[in-house]
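Good day; I would like, with your permission, to put a structural problem before you. What I wish to show you is a protein chain and, alongside it, a tokenised description of its three-dimensional fold. Here, with my thanks, is the record as I have it:
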Amino acid sequence: MAVIKPLIYDEKPSRKLDHRPFFSIIIPCYNSKDTIGDLLASIESQNMNDDIEVIISDDNSTESYQDIVDNFRDRLCIIQTKTEYNFAPGNTREQGVKFATGEWIAFADHDDLYITDTLPQVKEYILEHDEKHYAIANFLEVDPVTQQVRRQHIQTRNWNHAKFYNMDNFWKPYNIHFKKDLLTHEDIYISSCVNCGCNKFKCKPLEIPLFCYIWNARPTSLSRKDYEGREFLEVYFRDYIASTGDLYNEKFAEGEVDFEFAKDSAVSVIFFNYFYTMGFKFHRPDDWIRENDDYCREYLITCKELYNLTNKDILDYAAKDNCSVYYGIRDGAMIATGPCIETISLPDWLNYLHKDLKPRITMNDSLRKEK
């Protein structure tokens, strides 16, 4: 009978680096024996082992993959830690950040890959442009079975893939954290936090014209599973609103972002809510999840009160620049829900949501204070 080697949680580096690493790569893991070896090999293929710190943060795995990690411990600087309890990748990434010592932090999923010899180019680009805050490279969405590229993600601010955050000048000063026990959309939550940080520090991300990361879009992942014919987004729609709209409203209420930025972000989420729910109803006209309308109603009323908005203000925003904002968000929303035809118009939807001024789910009263 094979002996299962326990994972190492001593939180000490497997090999000593003689200087501060440029990158800390944080990897959330759970029962990762089938994938972690390929990811670690792709990190080693960057040929900058003395400038990378790998932090493996385990979410209380029930199966060991230590023998695979051990194959790299003498060549890569590896730190292993774990969460207090099994829950979600956000908690696991947050645990990993605690041990990061690199100048820049990056996140990699345990079943993804870095493209060979690209991280040295990312470093060179950051240094050449004297970037101090935040950098975005490109990544490929790949079918892990056929190896075919499904989509090229170029300079997208969503997700954590191919993103690099300066620890001393951005991540720590803006006090960025993953939201505890957010089951889904934890990466979108961080993207929203980062957008707020850019607003506060009046900075824009450095855009790096390079594909450096491969996102293996597996059908077994939480966002790809079949939920009895429903979209992942419809099932976890409340998490989406919490990771985007609620965060912008909270940051504004706390004085962390300015009015125009918060209002524009909030109104954009209203539009996304509209197109997303239209997609849900179009594809499942008889049994769409009714509670999602309650979430949209709650969010709309909160935004109206917080930013003193009327339906006309929202519609005027939609019509800006020949409706480019409106149609741009529509196109983006349909990537998630699939093509659809709106069952009711945006003006009718706004009136429908606001027919009940007492939302079923109450927001934090601190967000309702007069501005």
Q: What stands out?
A: The first strand starts at residue 23 and ends at 29. DSSP finds 14 helices and nine strands in the chain.
